Amino acid sequence: MSPQSPLSKSGPPSTASPERSQLIDRYRDVRRLSEELCRPLEVEDYVIQTIEDVSPPKWHIGHTTWFFEQVILERFEPNLKRHDDRYFFVFNSYYESFGERIVQANRGTLSRPTLDDVMAYRQAVDERVVRLIETLDPGDIPALTELLILGLNHEQQHQELFVTDIKHNFAANPLRPIYLAGEHRPALPYPEAEFVQFEGGVHEIGHHGDQFAYDNESPRHRVYLNDFRLSSRPVTCGEYLDFINDNAYSDHRFWLSSGWDFVRQENWKAPLYWLHTDDGWQVMTLGGLKPIDPNEPVVHVSYYEAAAFARWAGKRLPTEAEWEIAARAQNASPVDGAFLDDRVFHPVGCRIQTPAESGTLHGMLGDLWEWTGSAYLPYPGYLQAAGALGEYNGKFMSGQMVLRGGSCATPRDHVRLTYRNFFQPEKRWQFSGLRLAEDA
Amino acid sequence: MSPQSPLSKSGPPSTASPERSQLIDRYRDVRRLSEELCRPLEVEDYVIQTIEDVSPPKWHIGHTTWFFEQVILERFEPNLKRHDDRYFFVFNSYYESFGERIVQANRGTLSRPTLDDVMAYRQAVDERVVRLIETLDPGDIPALTELLILGLNHEQQHQELFVTDIKHNFAANPLRPIYLAGEHRPALPYPEAEFVQFEGGVHEIGHHGDQFAYDNESPRHRVYLNDFRLSSRPVTCGEYLDFINDNAYSDHRFWLSSGWDFVRQENWKAPLYWLHTDDGWQVMTLGGLKPIDPNEPVVHVSYYEAAAFARWAGKRLPTEAEWEIAARAQNASPVDGAFLDDRVFHPVGCRIQTPAESGTLHGMLGDLWEWTGSAYLPYPGYLQAAGALGEYNGKFMSGQMVLRGGSCATPRDHVRLTYRNFFQPEKRWQFSGLRLAEDA
Amino acid sequence: MSPQSPLSKSGPPSTASPERSQLIDRYRDVRRLSEELCRPLEVEDYVIQTIEDVSPPKWHIGHTTWFFEQVILERFEPNLKRHDDRYFFVFNSYYESFGERIVQANRGTLSRPTLDDVMAYRQAVDERVVRLIETLDPGDIPALTELLILGLNHEQQHQELFVTDIKHNFAANPLRPIYLAGEHRPALPYPEAEFVQFEGGVHEIGHHGDQFAYDNESPRHRVYLNDFRLSSRPVTCGEYLDFINDNAYSDHRFWLSSGWDFVRQENWKAPLYWLHTDDGWQVMTLGGLKPIDPNEPVVHVSYYEAAAFARWAGKRLPTEAEWEIAARAQNASPVDGAFLDDRVFHPVGCRIQTPAESGTLHGMLGDLWEWTGSAYLPYPGYLQAAGALGEYNGKFMSGQMVLRGGSCATPRDHVRLTYRNFFQPEKRWQFSGLRLAEDA
Amino acid sequence: MSPQSPLSKSGPPSTASPERSQLIDRYRDVRRLSEELCRPLEVEDYVIQTIEDVSPPKWHIGHTTWFFEQVILERFEPNLKRHDDRYFFVFNSYYESFGERIVQANRGTLSRPTLDDVMAYRQAVDERVVRLIETLDPGDIPALTELLILGLNHEQQHQELFVTDIKHNFAANPLRPIYLAGEHRPALPYPEAEFVQFEGGVHEIGHHGDQFAYDNESPRHRVYLNDFRLSSRPVTCGEYLDFINDNAYSDHRFWLSSGWDFVRQENWKAPLYWLHTDDGWQVMTLGGLKPIDPNEPVVHVSYYEAAAFARWAGKRLPTEAEWEIAARAQNASPVDGAFLDDRVFHPVGCRIQTPAESGTLHGMLGDLWEWTGSAYLPYPGYLQAAGALGEYNGKFMSGQMVLRGGSCATPRDHVRLTYRNFFQPEKRWQFSGLRLAEDA
Q1: Would you say D105 and A166 are in contact if contact means Cβ atoms under 8 Å apart?
Q2: Domains of chain C from N-terminus onward
Q3: What subunits touch chain B, counting only 3 or more CB pairs under 8 A?
Q4: Which residue of A76, A246, C62, D325 has the fewest CB atoms within a 10 Å radius of its CB?
Q5: Residue-wise DSSP of B352-368
Q6: Min Cα–Cα distance to chain A from B29, Å
Q7: With contacts defined as CB-CB under 8 Å, which chain A residues touch D42?
Q8: ipTM value of the model?
Q9: Per-residue pLDDT tens for B77-123?
Q10: Closest chain D C-alpha to A53 CA, distance in angstroms
């Protein structure tokens, strides 16, 4: 990449105003991270799709670019020629407002556009976006900024999917490719788990203020909660092994009815990526196959497994309101897990050698998404935007459960305490685990 | 049936104590109603099952009997011989705790046991139950009563299913059989719809007290609500026709994403049982095919259709807490719709000629189940019972939405303001409609 | 049924001409047999359908009647009113020429028309057919006769299906109903099997002459065969047990590729209706469950199993030409198996106590249909009729294999040496077995 | 590739004996052709698989190499180390004898081994095979030769599949990639079609002699045929358009029953790759989209379509015996169509400007595979080999139809008059068309 490349970190100083210049920097930083994530891949790795849920890396690269072209350039440069009309069919994800698109399950059957084509598309759009920021009428800058920030958050979401999708694709390959080799450090044991009490009553949750947040985090609103207790740490692989060894996967009493259907149809016996080998339980990671570490938080479990584990343990999952209120109560000193920025792509678990003060919640942010017992529904007073952006979150408010906290595949500056992630209760390919709760 | 039959209304006076005698009467009344519902059927009608959701009438008759034998007689007469061991396989519905059972979708492939066999089973169990009530040790009467009341509520639920399942079976038949002929009276127009305001704040919902309620209605607990408004009446067929005629079934903007999938896969164009004929829209009822009556409440819509209608109308669905609080606020004068007891098997809509006072909610109970915007989840502090009875409600708390109010197929004394019905969001074969809400 | 019933055997003497009278007698005889087959059934048994391949007994009764109304009455009485227009939708099987029809898999979801309705339909059509025979213009009698004979052969085919379909429905029922109770007589051992040699060269096969035959048996034509040998008897259950015990169901080497797919997908371990119990292998029959009799011919095997058995045994299946030529060569003294007329509904195997002459083929006709290695294709010079009757056989000449000989569910006067039965290679619910062949 | 590469055309002169040297040359020629076919592809094109029937180009390259390693090197060098043990799982196609293998439908989900890995595998095996030929004990040369010839014929089959699979993958891509650009020359019109008569009687068909042939072409055997006539040329696109324009795709009367199911389920309206555009019918080719040429032979039709066309035309398809006898009768002067060697990858139709003598059959070999009316079954006396090579052809003798003649994707020296190709009757992705026949 030449020094003049708009993606280059050390490019020539922008002559734009400080505000515009900041926007360009932010744009380039986020876009560059996506390209860094590509580095370990072979050309062939960009093409494949092992299940409908995952998308080919090439598609992620193209789709995030499409979003900027479709949502921003089409609006501010309506008369300019599209890079390639056919990409509007190929790289649309689920926006009905933008017309027909390729069937999701068929994304892995497209060899063209090639990786080079997609990278050229990416570069061309980047150049146009940067030029747009530099030259747009000042009165339009606020509107542009709002959409750019949305586009960059969108790209961050796809950075996480990029990593989790590659993990799925590699784990299905009999050659067990390694995305990022590295020495594996065993996790430290967590301090002994305790159930930390929080007071109920009328609380407020949800987003407010000027910072970016998705529409589904608003409006901030009141909720009434009973007193509750939250475990000081996520459930570990060691605890999950106890659950497995207690034959919980063969005992209907712990399972929701639709979860039990999945257990039997899919023949679930353990979290996704766990393999029972002659050397005991092993787990496929982005660094290759390794033995289960009992001190690590368990990940790649479905909501059904999380709920069954909680019932087996005589506890329950927290609601999203409980999670958010507890997380905010400890805002001063979150003891975080790993994020995408750490490039470990695996939960690290406990990071502190000396025990924290009693009552500390460990790992609320990072390492893994925590399933809550809350269905993904609109907050009271939620307004779904009109047009295509209304499709971003609102139309998925059915049949999914909320997860909180962010994972080792999430960019650190993408999460926040009000962030609502959501997946269908049977999904397991995300870094999803759980933390127990109980009534006070 | 001989006059000595335990099912006979005018049977010989019971010699039991008043408490036992009352229990016997209640038992006989509920059981007799199931048999009355059978009268219009031919033998062949008892056997069939058009989709997995519905069960053959013969199966309902046997299953409700099985429940008394399995849950009550097996407990209080553990050494007595079962009526027929094979029925424990055939008539188990979904209780994993009771072992293997016939695949639900195959219930309609069993010609044996015959109707006569099943009726004999029913009579034999009835005789044993009555004898048990008469002779049980007084100390066990409270435990027996509790289970009997549960069994009778269970039977009432199946009375509703019996009717709605026959409707589905008959509607699928090219000969369009009629379950209950009768003159159709056009519905009166409702008073003009208004949005009645209710005050928010901390309220209590859920069951308390001595009366029977399902475990999922407990515990009573506090919720915080914003101020809200509820429409004074359900959405009518006339309004729903406007929605159809506005091409809402072809416009993705009104639909949840998974709902839109159903619209296209199932080619939905109107509520279930609506037929577009040369004479305009007609609807299949248990009394045969008849023209759409614009004043009637619309029924047989899925949650997806209810939510799409609300979005189209610029409103939303109420939450179950809003519904319950509003219903209780008007407890003094509910203006009811039809119940099973009325034997019309179709919503009647408005029943009053002179307009009610402004602010009156019409038809909160009866006529139709109203979809709410609430996912079916445990109330805070809910405890799922151990053993088979824990399977009654708790294991279904995933992927379903709550409906409130009771329908024209529900026994009147089965519903209450805290009653939580629940179905998957795509189901349409129940008498399910909607009432609009909005933020205050 | 009144003595005047056209179905009554001892009805009043017909005043028709001898030729017409004979036709009426034949018509009544065949139709009466169908009704006799109904006698052991309960009303509920008429309604059900356990898999798409089988049809409800009620449907067979209606469909054979429909055939006479549709093919004969509609032609000779074009202005007369149909019995019920809706039956033309309900009782059409696969005739595209006659328009839309109910989806085959849904035949078991129709409770109406009731059995009584269908029997009334049957009686009404019978009366009209008899009257037609009595009164038709003499010049039209040959055309009528031809269609009547076709209709009666069609009814005989459905008599066989009626029996085999009930067997499937009953075998799927956990109560194991019995169609026809009776003492089970063990089969005699066959004389020791020998491979009987036949001379090759140019032979003729296929139908010729005035007797009725289906169009697919024509034209008679020449074939060239190598010398070949045919086993003197069908494969027995004892021999098939050896095949099972040699783990042949787990050994891909014996199986056709598409057969191996079925073995694994359907988890085949033995013929249909064989059950491995604590008391060893048992088999479900129309007389109930009974132990495997090693001397009986094996039935309810697919073509794939027949071909795998032959390969396991180091032999092959005969072609249909070989079968027909061998059967004709021994025309003088066929040693038959059971037919429908014998009312045993199960293969009887060897019926002679003293050994037949060496070189005798046992059981070529009756007991079981013998899979051949011939695909069901048109004979050279075959002409598919125009119109609906062209749909009778011709359109199925793809993807099916030929079976020869007739079974214990086939009316004796329905089979002949040129008769070509055909089923898809995975079907097992017919009384289908095999006889081995080898090159000379 | 270094000059010493065994794949290099101008490699150093072999020092092997003339016989061995010839074998090496043949081996290198065939292997080199596969690599030439790769040249127009991008790396991404090697990875994808649009339907289960097609395989990724990378897989073809690996699988043909695997065949040499598995069948030849494993036999003659049993103690040598495999190139990569995991490839035995990845590149096995359907050989049960060689153990587990990747599910066929998942071949397109493997990004690893990469193209470079597979090419390295190819080169390594080539080197070992050449060294084996050079050094093997002379007594083993005949056995080696036999297997090598089989392996090279196997590779030729995959060369054809390679081309037809790429066509399918490219046609499914909205960017419509071009495999081989080139000027399109319109086809010459064929001489007027005539039905050429052949005499029946006892003929011989099948392979005999020393030349290589697959086991399914043997043994040579006698058949009896009636006199018959064969069309002098394949059916053209122009004729097929008449069939389409006569609404034959909506008229059940022309279709086999299972074919009619496909027409409706798959919504067939024309041959595969035909597109109805604003500019009329166009067809996707390996050279891109082009208008239908009415003089070209029609290709990419299923057996069902071929049989329906024949019935519509009042003719029939030839049997494979008729085809072979007619082809041999004209052996002296076949007027061929295109082969893979011609690099046009599309049927060229008539190649002669001056009309051939009356009675000449045009295009019996090359251009397209001709569907026959014969099921793919063993010839009389066919012996399926033991072990893995017995899986090559014999286990597929069920449910498929025979095609004859070779196509524009078949290597010219791979076909012969006795060659039996076979596919399921619904397959359309091969270059398959038809020639009409009739009874004399």
Answers
A1: no
A2: 6-171 (1.20.120), 195-439 (3.90.1580.10)
A3: A, C
A4: A246
A5: -SSPPPTTPPB-SSSSS
A6: 33
A7: 111-112, 114
A8: 0.94
A9: 988 899 999 998 899 988 888 888 888 999 999 999 999 999 999 99
A10: 13
